[in-house]
Design a protein that fits this description.
By secondary structure, this protein is α+β, with helices and mostly antiparallel strands. The chain is built from 3 helices and 6 strands; from the N terminus they run E-H-H-E-E-E-E-E-H. It has a single domain (6-132), classed as Hotdog Thioesterase (Thiol Ester Dehydrase, Chain A, Roll). Strand 4 (88-98) and strand 5 (102-115) form a beta hairpin. The longest helix has 18 residues, at 25-42.
């Protein structure tokens, strides 16, 4: 069983769908990115403030598996848990359609931090998220 540490409910908007009537694949990246940013905010960390302080968390690698399409008006929940490997913060993110909880997307997002332009470990993120790191 996966131990998710954060979840965010959302709803598909008409303009996110393609001619086939399903969510365009690129929009799933928006959903999971929005979830990560809301996760940061829920723990008192502003992505914009990190940047102003010289720390840029950037995506180094992204892998997405598309399982079930979402359609206009569908409600869904985006969930995540977090791992740490070396300098990488690895967000394991899954999207489930509501109310049936059918898997829509499974994603792994590897992020790293650039501190003042140099690849480095972030003491601030390690302190904030250390208790959440799963192996």
């Amino acid at each position: 069983m996966t131990n998710y540490i954060f979840e965010l409910k959302m709803k598909v908007r008409d303009y996110e769908c393609d001619l086939q009537g399903i969510v365009n694949n690129a929009n799933y990246q928006h959903y999971i990115e929005h979830t990560r940013h809301e996760f940061l905010l829920a723990h008192g960390i502003s992505f914009a403030q990190l940047h102003e302080q010289g720390t840029d968390a950037v995506v180094a690698r992204l892998n997405m598996q598309f399982k079930t399409p979402l359609r206009s008006g569908d409600e869904f929940v985006s969930k995540l848990y977090l791992k740490k490997e070396g300098l990488r913060y690895i967000f394991m993110q899954d999207i489930f359609r509501l109310p049936d909880m059918r898997v829509v997307v499974k994603a792994q997002v590897d992020t790293v931090c650039l501190i003042n332009g140099r690849l480095a470990d972030s003491p601030q993120l390690n302190e904030a998220f250390g208790p959440f790191f799963q192996s």
